[in-house]
Amino acid sequence: MNTTTRRLAGIVMVMFLALLVSTTWIQFFAADRLNNDPRNARALYAQFGTDRGPIVVGGEAIVDSVPVDDEWNYQREYAQGRLYAPLTGYYSLVSGTSGIERAENDFLAGSADALWVERVQNILTGSDPQGSSVELTIDPEAQQAAWDALGDQRGAVVALEPSTGRILALVSKPTFDPNDLASHDTAEANQAYLDLLNDEDDPLLSRASNTLEPPGSTFKLVTTAAALESGEYTADSVIDAPSTYTLTGTSTDVGNFAGTSCASAGEMTLAEALRISCNTAYLGLAGELGAEAMNEQAEKFGFGSTHDIPFTTSASQYDPDVDAMSTDQVELSGIGQGSVLAHPLQVAMVSAAIANGGELMEPYSVDRVRDAELEVVEETRTNSLGRAVSTETASALTDMMVSVVESGSGTSAQISGVPVAGKTGTAQHGDNSAPPHVWFTGFAPADDPQVAVAVIVDEGGALGGEATGGRVAAPIAKAVIEAVLNG
Amino acid sequence: MTSPSSTVEPRQRRPLRIAEVFLLILALGGGIGGFAMVGLSIRGELPDQFWFRSMLLAATALVAHIVLRLRAPWADQVILPAVVLLNGIGLSMIWRLEISDATGMAPADAAGNMQATLLGAIVAFALLWVLKDHRWLRRYTYTAMVVGLVLIALPLIPGLGQEINGARIWISVGGFSLQPAEFAKIAFAVFFAGYLVTNRDTLALAGPKIFGLQLPRLRDLGPILLIWAASLAVLILQRDLGTSLLFFGLFVAMLYQATARSSWIVLGLTLFAAGALAAARLFPHVGARIDVWLHPFDAEYYDREVGGSYQLVQGQFSMANGGLFGTGWGEGRPFQIPYAFSDFIYAALGEELGLTGLAAVVLTYLLIVQRGLKSALSVRDGFGKLLAGGLAFAMALQVFVVIGGITRIIPLTGLTLPFMAQGGSSLLANWIVIALLLRISDSARRPSDLPVRGQVSAGAPAPESEPILVGPSGADGGTPADGTPAAGSNLPRRRVVDRDPHGAPGDAAPTEHIGTDVPPEHRGGESR
Lengths: 487, 528
Fold this sequence. Notes:
The complex is a heterodimer of chains A (487) and B (528).
Chain A: H1 2-29, H2 31-35, H3 42-48, E1 55-57, E2 60-67, E3 74-78, H4 81-88, E4 91-92, E5 96-97, H5 99-103, H6 105-108, H7 116-125, E6 133-136, H8 140-150, E7 155-160, E8 167-173, H9 178-182, H10 186-198, H11 220-230, E9 238-240, E10 244-246, E11 253-255, E12 267-269, H12 270-275, H13 279-300, H14 327-333, H15 344-355, E13 359-361, E14 366-370, E15 376-379, E16 384-387, H16 391-407, E17 421-427, E18 437-444, E19 451-457, H17 469-486
Chain B: H1 18-43, H2 50-71, H3 79-99, H4 110-130, H5 141-153, E1 161-164, E2 167-173, E3 176-178, H6 180-205, E4 209-210, E5 213-214, H7 218-237, H8 241-259, H9 262-282, H10 284-294, H11 299-302, H12 310-322, H13 345-378, H14 382-406, H15 424-445, H16 453-459, H17 470-473, H18 493-499, H19 505-513, H20 520-526
Antiparallel strand pairs in B: 1-2, 2-3, 4-5
Transmembrane segments (chain A): 7-30
Pfam family, one (chain A): PBP_dimer_2
Keywords (chain A): Membrane, Transmembrane, Transmembrane helix
């Protein structure tokens, strides 16, 4: 029986060899695939189990991980959740991450390549890994002012520092409380997430950077820029300004706001047309300039591109297919209607470029990242996106925008002792059954710009159909500008 | 491989089992060290009752060692430390899962398992103390068969049997759940060993030959068919693929070991595969296991509430997370796997100890099994060979079925990993298996006062009436089978009888009679 016993021993060897092979397969060769399986909660637990770094605004942590006595060890807490939600995003067991929580995850979690020295130290000293802190460019006073001024209205506010592109304020309403989503009670967090998803107002979307609406008359800045850059127009060029304008090739008549005529003579200077926001003048002007020039100018201001601020914005559009535009579409685009769509950040970028002497700076919201020892590991350098308009054009546009606030459609943005440049907008949207969105964009001080803003209030806000950009949006912009200048 | 006796003095002193002491210290270090690290890692302090529990485990090992020294001094010195290591690591992992139990269902119970370990060790070493010679078991060959059949039938008795997760392999006695199949495994091994050692030659030679396969006579097959039917009944009535596979594998392996007919293996595996396929078709519970085995990552099976692949996939996630070196004791999330403390303790260990740890675990099992098989090679009686071979192979098969199920070599079954998984029946039964293996290895390695065959032929020529191959027929290397001296041997008869005080002559007789019928391959195979 010894021969057979030995053969049994051989069979046993083969069986155990198979076990070693299959175990090696799972733990070595298939490990990556298994670790990355979306159903594997371990990556999530590893992530949530670390001391994630804070998000800092003005020296204060607005988001931090607080040690708690549960299986996750740390609870993510948002000190002023709703105020900063469109920036911070959320960090949730059930719905994942968004905003800066997602874009800066490598640093917040302490897993970024730049942090390898720290990680080696942690391994050597045996201390637990700690995330880095992310410092934002946000001016807390401007942010609060924008939040307060917007009140209960739906809308968004963006403020930029024109010379750098730093985002000083970014508010969107309605919004959400990231604390609800960060709850470790997954049923609760899931319900909160479902409620937000089902909310008609899309509170999870940042209206400041990711919801596109027609920019209305604020886009006349782009049209004016295109006209000035073409070399065929100056601020004093006289252009047609009929009381109604029949779109070329159609029977559609477009009038001015409230049906008024712009000028009794039926023509006016370009500067005057911008000051009173004359639609008929701009319809004709855009038609004269043509789709190509309009589109080119819009793209120079940042239309058609997404921006990583560091989370990714939507790309504003002039037109999805410029070559195929009919003349009436080009004409409509001159007043920011038709196919033109933008978010407040884009509109603020137009003002910022004009304020910055024509140079467009890439917007960003993260100043620097510091590791757990407060050493700076990464600092955002300002980045020029190129020249949107010449210095001369920028200067001329500034003068025109100042007169808009001094004596035009944007007088309610006036600040005593500070020259403010601005442009209002009242944009029809959808099937025109709802009140128009109202806009204001501008910068101040006009002679030494510190801040550029854009404000949208959806469907006229509290005033509804009675609202104009000047009445509703301009005071909000004013409040933000004051907060920045006084801060 | 006759025994150490060929190279040592006849009056050899008892071994002091120093190697065992040294290995036991290492094994206890592994188990207790793991226990301490779990506490330090999760709670920052030594576990509750750390010293008490550790001392209890050490005391168990010490008592076992002393019993071996007194009662089985020649027994293998590696088996006990290997078992203590596995048992200690298993206890640490169960405690680790108990204190971070996330699911709250069927919680891990380290204290209960510690008690079961103690009980298992006490019963096993009491058995070792009482059972001076394994051949005594041969007298109960048919009793063992009946006991085995009764045991596997118990879960089918209404009111006694419990159905858990679709399989009906538990019984409930006085609040305790028992898996009778674990004990039936031992009973069947005893029965097969006793039955086959008597009938192996008739099974191998007498009978018709069909398609080149030597088939045995029907009347010799009776008891074997009974067991085959019983193991199929386990599959059909209790719907437990693992236990059925274990019995069937044990049966086929021992049949092959005894008869050297590889056709048995082919025939046995074919029969089992046919039975398993039929069962998969007939019973959704078995069929689902096979689907889950083949497509665990499909959403259809993963999301299935009952009988899905969730547990299997979670086990894979757990092992993948462990990678090569593991997360370390208490640093992983093995409690994510349902029943990590019983069915999936291998995956749980894989997460925290890594591939290196699992390789060590697998090799430790291999060590125990190969030591058992080595005892089978060197023990002198056929019954001991078959019993040791069967028990060792059963353990190997059980380990293979469990780990193979977790690592997707075969479908998942309801068996438990010996010594590691939580479960009193499994612990108790496997400790008894170890006691039997130790007893047989003691017998195998004990220097014989009887000369080996070379000495027999040199010192005392065999009478002509005794063919030279009679000696090795029933046993290896000179000791006549079952302690009954070969006719004409010039050795003192008294000595042999001493070594088999329980062996009745009538019981041993059949082996003697068939001595001359040993097939040629046995003749060659026995002498080495």
